[in-house]
TrEMBL record:
GO MF, any single term: nucleic acid binding
Species in which this protein is naturally found: Shewanella insulae
GO terms, biological process: DNA integration
Biased composition regions of type Basic residues, renumbered to the chain: 701-712
PROSITE patterns in alphabetical order: INTEGRASE (PS50994)
Residue ranges, compositional bias (Polar residues): 672-690
Name of the protein this chain belongs to: DDE-type integrase/transposase/recombinase
InterPro entries the UniProt entry points to: Integrase_cat-core (IPR001584), RNaseH-like_sf (IPR012337), RNaseH_sf (IPR036397)
Disordered: region residues: 157-176, 624-650, 672-712
Domain (Integrase catalytic): residue spans on this chain: 286-503
Recorded superkingdom: Bacteria
Amino acid sequence: MELPRNSVWRVSNSGLFEDGLYRLLDIIQGVESVILFSLEETSTTVRPIAVTLESFIELVSSRKAIKTHYELPTYLLVDEDKIPDEHIGRRDKNYDLIKGIVFDRAFIFDFATKKRSTQLAEYARKTGIDRKSLARLLTLYWRNGQDKMALLPAFSKSGGSGRDRTPTTKPLGAPKQPRTIAVDRAAKFIVSVDDKKKFKKALKKYYLKESGLTLVKTYNNLLKDSYSKEIILAEACGRPPFVPTKKQFSYWCAKLFSKEQIIKQRTSENDYLRNKRGALGSISDRSHLPGVHFEIDATVADVHIVSELVSQYVLGRPTIYIVVDRASRMIVGVHVSLYHASWRAARQALTNSFLPKSIFCKSFGIEIEDSEWPCAHIPKELVCDNGEMIGLQPEKVLAPMTQLSFTPPYRPDCKGVVEKRFDIINKEAIHELLGTTRGGQIVRGNRDSRKDAVYTLKEVTAEIIKAVLEHNRSIFDDLAFTSSLLIENDLSPTPLNYWQIHLAKHRHELQSANSDDVIARLLPSAEVSMTRSGIYFNGMYYSCSEVETLNLASVARSSGRWRLEARIDENTTNYIYVRLDKNGRFIRCDLLPRSRMLRDKSMFESSFVQDWLDSKKELRPISTASIGDHKHRKDVTRQAKCRSQNAESLSFKDKTRNTRLRRKEELEATTNIITPESAASITNDASDSFPSGDKVIPLPKGRKRKTNGGGI
């Protein structure tokens, strides 16, 4: 059994001496005794006690004496270099006074067992020091650990630090000092207990509440509520009022209420948790493996865009969706659209995060390998806010794939990783573009950012993709302290390296995604039509090899069009996914040349064309000329009806008799056709003036009519 010197023991139910905390000063083998010093007595002179070694061992064996710890005063826990020379001199001087007897075991046993110690008196007489002073030094030495530092003077407690002092007739603190001798300052106010109660009441009423008043306004209300009589009387007497000053009120505000109380009571619980609480941990502490948590969120981009077809049309600011892996800080998916934050746009971002990225980047003119953005996986849990992801549709679509987790309302710090990515993307890419709003930091009178808008949705998306790729290659110091794999494999702490090394070492929670399943579940659904010219959707025509093999366009031309189920990727018009058979899979169909004007555009541009066409139709439903034609037609019809009233007496048979003869007469009356009778009269009249001859003039012949061989 170990009984080390200077150890501390908690003694209870011993029956030999009082229970309490004791320091074991020494073990004297000659008399088989243990010298103990009580640490709970607060007197400046405390004598040690002596017990037999056998009895103390028995106390330890019976668990009546348990080894414990004693906390030294804080002023002793200091570096030697930080102690002033004056304090070191006092400490060394006091130590020199007692070092002649403190190591004398005979003196210690005598001092612990006898009421009067002759050895202490003789040593005090020899050194010329008062006996009680020596006893005080010995008490400090034994209480604080039996070393030289135990005698360090406790000047840190000088002045009653931390204790309230009760003022009498003399004010506490420095008096008011005028800057010049020409002006006398008012007497200093003495704050009493009643004044503190008034301070506390005013602070609770005006200051310590959500959206409370400032401390200055609270002080003014304090004077109006509690010291109004004194102020009125002083003004009548022409003297300064004897009231607390602003400085005194501010001092007692900090004394009566702690800083934590002031912060909590002057803000809401939600704002305190979000912006003012201590951030001792991080949201990523619980997920250090890729795929444990994906975070998704949306924000409005800080830039205005224009239409790709008509550049003078400003379309506003697009919405950016980002999906990020919490552990690796890897941006695994992105989507930029003109839709506001909604399930329709969120499902596009999730589709992008679950599918390979090379095809997606190629549609925006960026050529990459899949290894440069190797994210095509489904996470264990998807963290989102209380917005578009709450509902039956997201739950029905995503529940078979992953687990949904929702953050509390107004708590963006619960998905702080994706929130920080928005800040990085804005600063690195968007704020450098023309038409940017720079996060709302617009000075009044500056040029409207919409006037500078020149970029299209596709161009902005391409810049964001480049910023995402650069982000995934950037070094983040936090990643170096998250996993040891980066250091073991000598890799830079980038999201891309973190992602790849954890996948290579099989330390992740990712699951691979089936592209057909993702397309069928997540991409927005639409109805398309199979027509004679191809698959029709939103003014565009598509086709694929299966359509040509089955000759479906010919069937539609003969039998009429029919509807098909489709999935639309709103990032591009170059292709859609169509289910040709209700029991089949979705097949990619590419844009046909007849719709080439919208090639390499987003689906929003085709919607813009449809809206533009509708606006033109609304602007001019019919032409103004057709209105005049319609009125003229009605007048002609009315006149014709008036003419036909006289013919109502004739029967239908009489009306239709001799139609050819009447048609011939009508031609002769209304045209210059020469008949045989008119030709003979013209010949007789001209015979006197023109000589006759035998010359024959051939006339043009009409074509011969073909008749059927067996009939008329």
